[in-house]
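Why do we bother with holo predictions? Because pocket geometry can differ from the apo form. Keep that in mind while you read this record for manganese (II) ion.
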Amino acid sequence: MMPPLKRIAEHILETDNFLVVSHITPDGDALGSMLAVGEILTILGKKVILFNESGLPDRFTWLMPCREILQILPDTPVDTIIVLDCGGVDRPGTVIAPWLLSKTVINIDHHLGNPMFGTLNWVDQRASSVGEMIGVLARELGIPLCGLLGQYIYLALISDTGDFSFNNTRPETLEMAAEILRLGLLPGPFHEQKQSTGTINQLQMRGAVLQQAKLYAQGKISVITFTKELFDQTGTTPEDTEGLVNTVLYIRGVQAAISIREEANSLKFSLRSKGSTNVQAVAAHFGGGGHRNAAGGTLIMPIAQAQELLIDAVTKALPNS
Ligand SMILES: [Mn+2]
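The structure, written out:
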């Protein structure tokens, strides 16, 4: 059987009208890979619509995509939907859900346990990011990783690898980054732009959260929580919490970090771990998903109860416990 990459490349060349979607509240990989596929399809002369139910987060407005990201379904024809960085068919949200059942779907992803919900599926759990897979797709289609395409792929690579520091950074990942640099991307200004998106409110909210950080399981688990009250007091939103869980993971002796935040009608939790501690299994137990060292999900219960459940489950996932 033809490998999924080749089948997808062939399908793309034979099809005209695309819609590209990534998961709700997109991160740098979801957005970067979505914008990159938009570039590739445009270069190939295809019609392409980018869709994300929750739109472009504020911290990414500097990317200034040349095209709009729709939050409502278009009334133009769509033959194929390309779904990126979604570990489950529910991840793109409820607006697009009926279309995912009725149209041709290409599922490109790197999450553990992806249920292969597409008509064509390309799932590579070893890939650092979906962006890295899209870079491989661009090579297959003979499109160089320069200009905006290079920027979008680079954003995806650095976002999912913690600036090339996590376990998922492979030689192939760095080779792709090198290729993008050779074709003109300047990492200094790029990182500067990506980092310079914070606000004083965000900094103060994060300071308050870190003040309350706690250790459990003899110092092996760190926990931070974000309450609605704190968001209101500091004029911040759940989006301003991005990445703080990594700060508490890197406390000496900590093996896993838990972050819990209150949203309108639910709690979102994020889990991070070092080494062999598999937080994907913990997240999956609570209906979520992700990767071995970075996972998350949603819970509907009081924050204190969620904290207790998660600490208990993560403690059991620690080595030798
Ligand atoms: Mn990803």
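Residues 29, 85, 110, 129-130, 160 surround manganese (II) ion (CB under 6 Å).
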